[in-house]
């Protein structure tokens, strides 16, 4: 793969990650444009991998989406999920945080049960 091809792939992956998080947060492209000052058409082009995102735009998007810049760049770090979860629960009530913990325990129990079932 040539350097230009690799860059195109990275740009497409970056756009896909940005779109995935935006959609997960249930934000419209227009809302993102309004909050970041990046034109809506540019947000669309970035998400489709048709336009490069500059570092200041990526920082704005990262801040709005509450994810570290490294996540969007594919620089996976095992602590990213924990940090993202911590950021997500910061403004929750004590009751809501307890519910998140219960749900995490449920997911863990479900995963362990599934693993036991597969071993049989």
From TrEMBL:
GO terms for molecular function: DNA binding. It comes from Acrocarpospora pleiomorpha. It holds the Pfam family HTH_3. This is HTH cro/C1-type domain-containing protein. Residues 18-72 form the HTH cro/C1-type domain. The lineage of its organism: Bacteria, Bacillati, Actinomycetota, Actinomycetes, Streptosporangiales. PROSITE patterns: HTH_CROC1. InterPro entries: Cro/C1-type_HTH, Lambda_DNA-bd_dom_sf, Rad_response_metalloprotease. It comes from the Bacteria.
């Amino acid at each position: 793969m040539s350097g230009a091809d690799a860059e195109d792939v990275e740009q497409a992956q970056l756009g896909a990650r940005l779109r995935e998080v935006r959609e997960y947060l249930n934000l419209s492209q227009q809302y993102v444009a309004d909050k970041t000052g990046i034109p809506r058409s540019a947000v669309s082009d970035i998400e489709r991998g048709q336009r490069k995102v500059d570092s200041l735009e990526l920082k704005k998007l990262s801040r709005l989406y509450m994810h570290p810049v490294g996540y969007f760049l594919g620089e996976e770090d095992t602590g990213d999920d924990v940090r993202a979860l911590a950021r997500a629960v910061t403004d929750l009530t004590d009751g809501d945080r307890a519910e998140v913990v219960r749900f995490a325990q449920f997911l863990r129990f479900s995963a362990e049960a599934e693993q036991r079932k597969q071993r049989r």
